[in-house]
Design a protein that fits this description.
The chain has 228 residues and is mainly alpha-helical. It is built from eight helices and two strands. The termini are far apart.
Amino acid sequence: MTTIRLWDLPTRLFHWLLLLAVTGAVITIKTGMPEWHGRFGLFVIGLLSFRIVWGFAGSTYARFRSFVCGPSAIVRYLRGQWQGVGHNPLGALSVLALLALFGFQAVTGLFANDEISFQGPLYPLISSGWSDTLSSWHRLTEWYLYGLVALHVLAVVWYTKVKKDNLVTPMITGKKRVPPGLASDAKGGGAVAFLVSLVLAAGVVLGASGSLMSPPPAPEPPPQNLGW
């Protein structure tokens, strides 16, 4: 066996920070802190935006092209004919599903309202009817996310206990032991790529926060009673 560099530091930070951000979003909405729930939602949007850019600019195994496969690769994997490192073809589907569902959840939250006092930062851009619709989707998607995350955790446990393939340690250390010749160290994804990804993600968060919207017009002053 030989040790390779598998997951780069930005990919590992994204993974664990997303876990913290989602946990924070769930806790704050369940404990009646909608403002903090919104902040964690913006953090999630920033993380997802970074990961999407990093999927093209990051190192070898973080790039989408290294693990997003077609149906034939999935069939080979199910037959036990797939060999590789990083996300396997089924794991790739899980990653894409999580990114898509978390993204949908975060974006709908930008326009949502709690029917009491809290409104998402982009609420003024749509009608109240559309906001109510997106709010209902936002609440419904929460349960799909719970199910998908549970499947993700069960898959990790199954790979670790049954297939003896520890997926957690490489996501902490970045390194993995593999048979000689199976794979080489990850390459690419240097400092420039990281800074570009970070700046683009920050721009998305800035837009999602509503900071770029024009302020609402000032209300007209009430008519003066001149006593006539």
